[in-house]
Amino acid sequence: MPGETPDPRPAGLKRRNMETKTAKTDPQSPSPFLNLEDLRPRLVPRKRFTDRFMPRHSGQLLFDPSRCTGCGTCEMVCGNRNVSLVAPASASVTVFRDEGQGKNFALYCQHCRRPLCLEACPTRAITRGEDGIVRIDRVFCVACGLCTMACPEAAPLRDHRTKEIHKCDLCEGDPLCARHCPEGALSFTRGKAFRWIKGLRWTVQALSFLLLVFILIGTFCSFQAGVVSLSCPTGILQNIASTKTIVLTGIATALALLLLTVIAGRLFCGWICPFGFVLDLVGKAVPKKISPPRWLANRLNKYGLLAGAVGGSFALGYQAFCTVCPIGTLCRSYGVQGFFRGAELAIVPALAALEVTERRSWCRYFCPVGALLALVASLGLIKIVIGAKKCKKFSCVQCAEVCPVGIIDGNLLREGVSPKIPMTECISCFRCIDRCPYGAAKIRFRWQKGVPGEEAP
Amino acid sequence: MSPYKCYYNHKVGLADLAEKTFRVLPLPPEGVREHLGGAPLNTCLLGMHEEKDPLVLGTGPLTGSFAPASCLLVATFRPPGSSKPAHVPLTLRTGPEMKFSGLDFLVIHGRSSSPVVLKVKNGEGTFAGGDGVHGKNLTEAQASLHRFGEFPAVLLAGRAGALQVPRAAVQVGQAGSFDKAGLALWMGRRNLEGILFQGTRGLFFAEDHAGLSLELGKRIRSKEGKPAGFRSLLKKTGGNVPAGDFFRGTDEKIMACYHCLYPCMTRLSFSNRRFVSGRDNVRRESVWLTDPVGFAALAEKRPADVLPLLKACREFGLDPEAAAAVLDREDPYGDTLVRLESLLLENHGEEQPVRGEVASFASGMPSPAVPGGGEETASTKKKMAMAMILGVCPLFLFLVPSLDVPDYLNFLPKQKGASAFYREKVEELSERLIGGYPAP
After folding, report:
1. Which pLDDT does position B372 carry in this prediction?
2. Residues A228-249: what's their mean pLDDT?
3. How far apart are CA B65 and CA B209, in angstroms?
4. Based on the domain organization, do A297 and A331 belong to the same domain?
5. What band does A10 get if pLDDT is binned at 50, 70 and 90?
6. From CA B197, how far away is CA B107, in angstroms rounded?
7. pTM (2 decimals)?
8. Alpha carbons A406 and A148: distance in angstroms, whole number
9. CA–CA gap between residue B394 and residue B376 (Å, rounded)
């Protein structure tokens, strides 16, 4: 353009050109520069496909303050490993001793799922291995100390002597601090060897699936084994609305399920529902890559569908939702009865495909059966409580991650606030209780006050 | 090369309170070879600076090492009116923190014109004004020390020490101490309000010693069982003192000194409801139980209110054993507390003897001092002397009889023929120490 000052730089060095060139670079072509990532030692094997179904537990260092005597053996052995000297000040674990309160607290890296230190590191010296261990690579670390500021636990520590940053690497799977702790206050675990709730739930789910899909025979909304009849409460509601008559046997068994919900929450959804079992299996295999639109991801949708199902049945004179209910179609079209084959077969895979968005999307936003149980669960006797003070806030939030219906607020836990669990949305799968390594998630009666770690003395 | 190259920093700090100067001198290797460390080497340094009447704080070769309970710092000084030097064992983290701060021995002499606090860190000592600590109760003094930064080991002369009360005892944080010889009084007379240690460095000890320590720990647990904290100590030393009576209605928390595999301290939390008037004053208080002799003496005299009285002694900086001697059995609690506070007004002046001839190991550990306690045997005395030489906790050796001298000698340098040399040396130094180590 006339009047514009010409850029003195050669054309190849202009910013725009460089950006264009960078953008167009073929990722497959060998780079003329040394790739720093190639220098990193690959310490752990790649994740296997089977890990989706049977995840390998990354190790965890657990601390029990009630056992800690403050002897500092952990600091001593850790410092010795870091700098080959007995130097507690160079250790990656620090014990804070409150003489007045008589409390000791060990501070060490929690190997966060999403480490803030990793994001803060300007030289990318911090990596999180596939084994879950967050490490500092000495080759790349310039000891700027940004990680010490970013970490909410202040776990990366600066060595006053060498000015280096030290951080726990779990001694590559066999922490010396846990091995040497005389009181067992620090212990290392690779997760529970057998999560009994998990094993029990999967067994019950599989048996329920077999029973409801392959053994029991019935109609749209109820199953029968001999004289025992099991009715879906939503189906019975629609039945009453459509026929304008009340079937007492159906109501009695529907009430049994509602009573179970009052006692134990939406146990049906988490443990018995055959479609829930299918969703759990599909959810394990399908990666979550699509975010659902806001209008669709609304938990009130299911109440609307419930009202629509009952209203529709009343208007149409037949059980409107039962014809497309995934639980019903699963039992009818995939079981021994096999009537309604054809178009109905597509309902289950179509709804199961929603798992690409969020786990149990159908249960969260659409299921009218779940909606009715949710209304009853609001009168329930139990609740699930999570005590932020007892758990390792900031870093763990495993309860929030395993919750299939996404009702545990991990951000609140990070701030040290105990989240309130809405029992209307909770499907009582008890994954949070099973997963919590600190015993911070518990079942309590509705009227009980306080959460673990915050009870009144 | 000295075989102790790895066990010491080979540095002695020399602090002059009058001039507020701090010098670092090399530790002569021949001194280490001749006296090993701890109480004998302290006595040697005391003799070298005899005319200045110093206080010598010293570590042993094993202090801060992988050896179990290697927490000891020995304070050696000459109490007024005593012909022999007294050795006060200081535990918790004092020894390792001083060693990791870069100094093995610290000689303090002179008299400051104003209250002063000595901070030892990064191989050097600095002086700071001690007005915020002077004459304050323990809790207030500790709060005041926070402005100096984080110091894991603190020695305080306390309120009684600052007021030069003969019954004063030095305070190691809130844990009290085994001071029965007037160390707090020595500090108070020289306006030294406190000594703070922070170890930011490290020392090399053979790495295989970590494994050795782990094995010893397992052996101790298999033979001695689970530690019961102060209860186990009372059981062994307390004689007629029924520990269970005092622990009823309290929350116990067992606490340990540096790398102690069989902890003997307990922090008790109790309600003061019975001892205060007015609902607003009711709260839970806590006290550390460390010194069995002091506790036994107080418990024998005032069994009903031993815990709040012990806490009051700590706050005032008084030795519980000496305080118990002047308390009356029948007085109500309020009057007893007033009596305790009135002890702070005692002052015997500069030169008068305050406690007469003190025991060489001026500590709360020898069992004969405990009412109804057992006799102190020669082997017990020898073990204690050995601990004072090597820099490990004498109480630990007293509590864990399955551990003996050879177990500790394994942690010393391993040259050819060293084992026999050290055994003989430790034997010889122990005998000399029990007999009153003559300063050369």
Report:
1. 43
2. 83
3. 8
4. yes
5. very low
6. 14
7. 0.75
8. 31
9. 13
Average pLDDT, rounded, for chain B: 86
Assess whether A286 and A418 both reside in one domain. Answer: no
CB count in 10 Å sphere of residue B305: 17
Which of B200, B212, B266 has the highest number of chain A CBs within 10 A, making it the mutation to test binding with A? B200
Indicate if A214 and A352 belong to the same structural domain: yes
Q: What is the number of other CB atoms lying within 10 angstroms of the CB of residue B311?
A: 21
Counting the structural domains of chain A, the total is 4
What CATH number does residue A430 fall under? 3.30.70.20
Residue ranges with strand state E in B199-327:
251-255, 265-271, 284-289
B205 touches A: beta carbon within 8 Å: yes
From chain B, pick out residues whose CB is under 8 angstroms from the CB of A88. 96, 100, 199, 202
Residues A328 and A388 in one domain: no
Give the three-class secondary structure for A57. coil
Alpha carbon dihedral B186, B188, B192, B196, in 10-degree steps, equals 80
Asked whether residue A46 is domain-assigned, the answer is: no
Count the neighbouring beta carbons within 10 Å of the beta carbon of residue A194.
7
Residue A225 has what pLDDT? 64
* C-beta separation of B301 from B327 below 8 A: yes
Q: Residue B106 and residue B58: Cα distance in Å, rounded?
A: 6
A35 belongs to a structural domain: no
A160 and A254 in a single domain? The answer is no
Strand partners, A228: A225
In a domain, A41, yes or no: no
Chain A residues with CB under 8 Å of a chain B CB are 66, 69-73, 76-77, 79-80, 83-90, 97, 99-103, 160-161, 176, 179-180, 182
Tokens of A155: 């776990």
Instruction: Please tell me the distance in Å from A71's CA to the nearest CA on chain B.
Output: 5
Judged by a CB distance cut-off of 8 A, whether residue B259 touches chain A is: yes
Cα(B291)–Cα(B321) distance, integer angstroms: 9
Q: Which of A358, A374, A398 is the last residue of a domain?
A: A358
Pairing of strands B55-58, B73-77: antiparallel
Same-domain status, A307 and A420: no
Q: Give the DSSP H or E segment for B153.
A: strand B153-156
Parent domain of A151: 52-189
Are residues A337 and A256 part of one domain? yes
CB contact burial B88-105 (16+ within 10 A = b; e otherwise): bbbbbbbbbbbbbbbbbb
ipTM of the complex: 0.92
Opening angle at CA A47, ends A42 and A50, nearest 5: 155
Q: Are residues A281 and A346 in the same domain?
A: yes
Is residue A376, in this structure, part of any structural domain at all? no
